[in-house]
Amino acid sequence: MEPSRSSAYDRLAAYINQRMRMSHIYQPLMLMELLGRSSPAPAEDIARRILGEDSSQIEYYTERVKRMVGRVLTSNGITSHAGGVYSLIGADDLSEIERDALLQLCREKLDAFRLKRGDDVFAHRSRHRTAISGSSRAR
User: pLDDT tens, 100-128?
Assistant: First the structure.
């Protein structure tokens, strides 16, 4: 089915088809986020859209799950792991109210941790952090 033509459609289609120059995937992803929500979008939501397409970040955090968090939760009997898939032990026994309450407890834990740590939660991933000198690292 052919979309109904409007000047906005024509302008955007012409930009995408003829004038868009890409050195990365950012422009179409930003437009997709804006189009999917009928505009406006905070920069943070657009960044999340881009992040969702960044396979290097997905690979990085997949390794964090396997080597750290998944291992800890599984060794504590909270999750099980088989065939590359994690499952919450006892999940089928939880009511929706219990799930919501547990989600709220997790949110409170996150908020308290962020309050305590501030902006340092993901400082190890920041582009803006300064290098540690060799002598400081050795100490």
Answer: 999 999 999 988 888 888 766 665 555 55
Q: Which residues pair with 87 in a beta bridge?
A: 80
The reply to whether 82 and 59 lie within a common domain is: yes
Please indicate, yes or no, whether residues 40 and 17 belong to a single structural domain of this protein. Answer: yes
**Residue 2 resides in a domain:** no
Number of domains in the chain: 3
pTM: 0.60
| 137 located within any domain | no
